[in-house]
Design brief:
It is a single chain. The longest helix is centred in the middle third of the chain and has 15 residues. By secondary structure, the chain is an alpha/beta fold. Helix 3 links the parallel strand 5 and strand 6. The strands form two sheets. It has a three-stranded parallel sheet, sandwiched between helices. The chain has a three-stranded antiparallel sheet with strand order 2-3-4. 33% of the residues lie in helices and 26% in strands. The radius of gyration is 14 Å and the shape is globular. It has one domain.
Length: 102
């Protein structure tokens, strides 16, 4: 299991593949979508780690944004490809339960 943990509370959609805009302590900046990040780590390990490759170790990437209330941005259909590859889990009891059941 690969979990990309984020403390983000909000993000804005961009028109760039796999990128969102979010606020950091030094201002707003574009960053990789959390699902894209988790998937890319899994892809990198699958393709370049001998043990993962030779032992056929299955990797399950996902992202958990424990401070993010679903506003439709992170889960926008523009990011559907990455959300399918690495589901995102957000703030809220039901969302946490979905994550726990993974």
């Amino acid at each position: 299991m690969i979990i990309e943990l984020k403390q983000w509370e909000s993000a804005r959609k961009t028109d760039r593949d796999g990128l969102v805009s979010t606020r950091f302590s030094h201002g707003e900046k574009e960053a990789s979508h959390p699902s894209y990040q988790a998937w890319s780590y899994a892809s990198l390990l699958s393709n370049f780690n001998e043990a993962v490759y030779s032992e056929n170790i299955g990797l399950r990437p996902c992202a958990y944004l424990h401070n993010y209330t679903d506003d439709g941005v992170i889960t926008d259909s523009f990011y559907a490809h990455y959300l399918e590859l690495a589901p995102v889990f957000l703030k809220g009891k039901r969302k946490r339960q979905n994550f726990a059941n993974l």
